[in-house]
Design a protein that fits this description.
alpha+beta, 7-stranded antiparallel sheet, elongated
Length: 160
């Protein structure tokens, strides 16, 4: 009734499937590498970890932050998505605290990083009560982040 595949034909099909999957994995790795190169080539980029909220409830995600005039755009390292995962607006952004990684943080971070808690000023100008994000970065990257946060390019006017 039906035609039977010989064992040689089944092996050939398995080989083709294996090589196609291998080619797809290789293409994905090349695409992630090219994306990272493009993100970092223009300058103003720094490797940092990001975690929404505070308190260690969510895992740290490694990424690349690119400084812009009005925001820090954060991209996941292992992603093909062209848009940033998070955008931290510079306007009203304040550093609420900094600390060394401790406890559960050390499962995902190294001890030489610094964790910075950030949030935005409330509409009435008061300090935030809870951090919106935590960033973990090296000492040099933190110096660059604080400089970016405190400076503003000449001629830039924030919209009211």
């Amino acid at each position: 009734m039906g035609e039977h595949l010989s064992s040689g034909t089944g092996l050939q099909i398995a080989e083709w499937v294996f090589f196609m999957l291998l080619a797809l994995i290789l293409l994905a790795l090349i695409a992630v590498t090219v994306r990272r190169f493009v993100l970092e080539r223009g300058g103003g980029a720094v490797e940092c970890y990001l975690r929404p909220g505070a308190g260690g409830r969510r895992p740290w995600r490694i990424g690349c932050g690119r400084y812009g005039t009005e925001e820090l755009r954060w991209y996941r390292i292992f992603s093909l998505w062209p848009r940033p995962t998070a955008e931290l607006s510079r306007r009203g952004l304040v550093v609420m605290g900094r600390r060394a990684p401790a406890g559960d943080d050390l499962r995902e971070l190294t001890g030489d990083l610094i964790v910075v808690e950030v949030g935005w000023l409330a509409a009435d100008g008061s300090d935030p009560k809870e951090p919106v994000y935590e960033l973990a970065m090296s000492e040099g990257a933190l110096t660059g982040f604080l400089s970016w946060l405190e400076s503003m390019p000449p001629g830039t006017h924030w919209p009211s």
